Amino acid sequence: MNIVDLKSPDDSKKAGQEIYSLIAELFPICRSITGDGYRQTMSILQRDIPIKIHEIPSGTQVFDWTVPREWNIRDAYVKNAKGERVIDFRKSNLHVLNYSIPVKKIVSLAELKEHLFTLPDHPDWVPYRTSYYKDNWGFCLSHNELLKLEDGDYEVYVDSTLEPGSLTYGELYLEGEEQEEILISCHCCHPSLANDNLSGIGVATLLVKYLQTVPHRFSYRFIFIPGTIGAITWLAMNEANLNRIKHGLVITGVGDAGKITYKKSRRGNAEVDRATAHVLKHSGQNHDLIDFYPYGYDERQYCSPAFNLPVGCFMRTPYAQYPEYHTSADNLESLSPESLGDSFSKLLGILQILDNNRIYLNLNPKCEPQLGKRGLYSSIGANELALLWVLNMSDGDNSLLDIAERSGIGFTAIQEAARILSTSDLLKENRETN
Ligand code: ZN
Fold it and tell me: How many Å lie between the centroid of ligand 1 and the Cα of residue 31?
């Protein structure tokens, strides 16, 4: 109920710096959809926020999918005939194909090349590649490094294990005044990639820390899951409780310099879609609102037809639309504390609307009440036009967001008008229809 948008740019910058420091700490860890890198990431987050860890055994059936074997890696390299590590996992965890099966053998350059991945269009960058559901081994390297490999034999070594274990995910529940929930979801399964992955984790973590300090009407459920299989697993484990989710957001790619992009829920006009559109419109900043499509992040699962949850995706530049996406160039330099702080403060603005959007009833609906005799025309901070809009529209059907949209006045001013009118006994919450 008291969630407030961060007003000063200094606050937002400070928030951005805090998020950035957490991201920098998490960046070196080799994460995947399962394994110790994932657990290590969760345990670092647990230092700041009380995440509960769930372990779902490999082989568990989750709708049409099966929880995969657990992958762990200790080392990987390709050595040339001189014994030099020409590709070295210790330099960057992107060098190994994520989920690579263990291998130790001598291969010719021709055979090696069948297992190498590069980006000829960005010859200095190392691509990020995975092979979760098909047993394979491989290495990723810059195209320039590939061109330097000479004919001859190479020793390839991947010291990994792929065996029955579990899929790990984190979940955090913040109880509100009501049982109904706002779901916040971010994927945590990428190795050293900053914007796609860590930016969402960092912003979600600070949202938890902030929400812990203020009373709120809705309960919040934050989930820190591996992409796709984690969302599917979580939905399968929680199917009975999904009706509690009133609003939801997937948060990802929120640290780059691009404008904010919001991908609407499949419903297209859910309250979270409207609240986000309102915040972005009133920010005065360039932004994009895009319609749902069944590709992208975990909104695909939340918005699958059997669930059709009101969950949108909040990002800056969409995935695959920035060249650094899924490459070594999505590093700490591709993020800025300013962008992270701006994303954080806009998300708080959205949560503020969702948490405070209610329907009120005008208790003096026959003509306008005489505001002057109640001192409301002179009350400090009262936006008189907002008072008149709230009085006129509060017939038991319109929410504060409806009024904000129709009047063109920002939600915060409409909310404040409702507070002032309630204090003057001219308005009461219409609980029956809420
Ligand atoms: Zn990704």
Answer: 12
Kindly state whether residues 21 and 88 are assigned to the same domain. Answer: no
Counting every residue, how long is the chain? 434
- Higher pLDDT, residue 320 or 221: 221
Tally of domains in the chain = 3
Q: What is the pLDDT of residues 221-232, one digit of tens each?
A: 999 999 999 999
Arithmetic mean of pLDDT over the chain: 95
Q: What is the pLDDT of residue 85?
A: 98
Do 153 and 179 share a domain, yes or no?
Answer: no
State both tokens at 238. Answer: 């929680």
Asked which of 352, 385, 410 is the last residue of a domain, the reply is 352
Is 70 exceeded by the pLDDT of residue 380?
Answer: no
For ion ligand 1, residues whose CB falls within 5 Å? 196
Q: What is the CATH number of the domain that holds 383?
A: 1.10.10.10
Instruction: Write down the number of H helices and E strands in the chain.
Output: 12, 19
What pLDDT, in 10s, does the model give residues 257-271?
999 999 999 999 999
Looking at the structure, tell me whether residues 239 and 179 fall in a common domain: yes
Q: How far is the CA of 142 from the centre of ligand 1 (A)?
A: 19
